[in-house]
Design a protein that fits this description.
The protein is mainly β. The chain is built from one helix and twelve strands, in the order αββββββββββββ. The protein is globular.
Length: about 190
């Protein structure tokens, strides 16, 4: 009887661990939707122990977007995350483009050929957050945004909300979150 009880306990513990692990959300695998800052929430909402938003010495930047856009045109861009010290090992980001006058009005569409990124609910973000050796910067490349073909009055001016995570890669809450916005307007011919 003692052997059966031990076997039962071992099987119970192993099955419980597998069930808990399978149901735990791993946002290192994908960026959760709604944390770009467009609706005020950023990654600091979920990263426990996170240092202050936009800590000194770091940043997140969208590179190569134009100051003005032409309707229906596709623009290639990158997202670069920088940290004050070269002690970061994992990287994440999310970006959303909305009408400047209404953060709920989506503007344009994203696409990507970067295997470490994915699109969900009109947001582009990391997928399987890449890891590196100790570094203070990482750039997500091969990202694209296509401007609205027939922009509404609200979409004449567009704001990109972006967040970046410079993580220590050990899951202890020592991540640094940075956020920024970039505005562009419609080109008039």
């Amino acid at each position: 009887m003692k052997i059966n009880l031990r076997l039962f306990l071992i099987v119970f513990v192993v099955c419980s661990f597998v069930f808990i692990s399978a149901n735990k959300k791993n946002y290192a695998s994908y960026a959760p939707v709604g944390y770009t800052g467009a609706q005020t929430k950023t990654c600091t909402s979920c990263h426990s122990g996170t240092n202050n938003l936009n800590a000194s010495g770091g940043s997140v930047v969208i590179n190569n977007l134009p100051a003005t856009y032409t309707p229906g045109t596709k623009y290639n861009f990158t997202v670069t995350i920088k940290h004050a010290s070269a002690n970061r090992y994992s990287w994440g980001f999310a970006v959303k483009a909305v009408a400047t006058s209404s953060t709920t009005t989506v503007a344009g569409t994203f696409s990507t050929t970067n295997p470490n990124t994915a699109i969900a609910s009109n947001e582009l973000g990391h997928s399987n957050a890449p890891t590196t050796g100790a570094s203070n910067t990482y750039t997500f490349s091969n990202l694209s945004w296509t401007a609205p073909t027939n922009p509404t009055t609200a979409q004449q001016n567009i704001t990109f909300y972006v967040v970046g995570n410079a993580a220590n890669g050990i899951g202890d809450g020592g991540d640094f979150i940075y956020s920024a916005t970039q505005k562009i307007g419609r080109a008039h011919v």
